[in-house]
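Annotated sample (chain length 168).
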Amino acid sequence: MARPDIPGVIAPPPLIYLGFLFAGWGLVELAGRPEAIEAGLGWLAAGFNLAVDVRRGVALTLIIGGLLLDGMAAGLFRRRGTAVEPWKPSTVLIDEGPYRFSRNPIYVGFAITYVGLAIAMDSWIALLLLLPCLVVVDRFVIRREERYLAAKFGPAYEAYRARVRRWL
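Output written by the structure step:
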């Protein structure tokens, strides 16, 4: 039986980022409850201590920047006629635009957007959860995609991989 022509990622990457972001939001909400404060967990609800206007400006800048990077990178997939979704087959190896600097500019864009949303939420705990989120994306999405692309595109992908970094 032939293997399916897909990378086999564990979940759609946007859901992974959102899952960790919602976990951060949930921890902040729980930590703000009187029982949590009495138990000494109120510190989990601490924010960045930034003026609201500053926090909103930084958050908005990061969110827009991350979404623009995602849109530019995904647009290249669409223009070249290949699926952007990692659960669908890839038909072309893209090495132009932001892919000249990162093999995963969409995931970099997701991370930038995540930082903006964590700042907008005024939650340092949500921001800290980006680290394990990136580990999950790296281990269970990117590495599977890389194995798939190496098998599918062979020497062309290996040459691309040798000259362009995984993240930045």
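Annotation: Residues 52-80 form the longest helix (29 residues).
Annotation: The chain has a mean pLDDT of 95.
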